[in-house]
Design goal:
- The chain is an alpha/beta fold and 143 residues long.
- The protein has a single domain (4-142), classed as Response regulator (Rossmann fold, 3-Layer(aba) Sandwich), CATH 3.40.50.
- The protein contains 4 helices and 5 strands.
- It has helices at 35-42, 68-77, 95-103, 116-133; strands at residues 4-9, 26-31, 56-59, 86-90, 108-111.
- The protein has a 5-stranded parallel sheet, with helices on one face.
- The radius of gyration is 14 Å and the shape is globular.
- The two termini are 19 Å apart.
Length: 143
């Protein structure tokens, strides 16, 4: 069981941050503005030198400057990042996007609900799954 769950949030999920607080488990959530910043964060490049490596990446496909497919491809081709679980969380239900994400080894693909209540419920379910049931790679395996 993880003592801390650090999740890189690569789109605007501020509304759901409060739903991820659970008892003795601390969630540290990080948000970046676009795909370029997502990769800088993950690679700990300027201005993100001292950030922790996330346990899980929640990735939106519709990001400016570098889309989620490009980010996912870079994550999976980087020896230091490829073991970090990536959950695609996006508005697209297009079969092409789903297939492309799985071709790039996403761990799961979830279409975001359009209503806030459904989104909060989804975030709680993903949190429970990640913390209670999933076996995540060791910290050493994510370095």
């Amino acid at each position: 069981m993880l003592a801390t769950c650090k999740e890189l949030i690569s789109n605007q999920f501020e509304a759901a941050f409060c739903t991820l607080k659970r008892g003795d488990i601390e969630h540290t959530l990080h948000h970046v503005e676009d795909g370029v910043h997502a990769m800088q964060f993950l690679r700990r490049q300027e201005p993100y030198f001292d950030v922790p490596r996330p346990d899980v990446v929640l990735l939106d496909l519709n990001m400016p400057r570098k889309d989620g497919h490009e980010v996912l491809e870079e994550i999976r081709s980087d020896v230091h990042l490829r073991r970090v679980p990536v959950m695609v969380l996006t508005t697209s239900e297009a079969a092409e996007d789903i297939d492309r994400a799985y071709d790039r080894a996403t761990n799961c693909y979830v279409t975001k609900p359009v209503d806030l209540g459904g989104f909060i419920e989804l975030m709680q379910a993903l949190s429970r799954f990640t913390l209670d049931w999933a076996e995540l790679p060791s910290a050493e395996g994510r370095q």
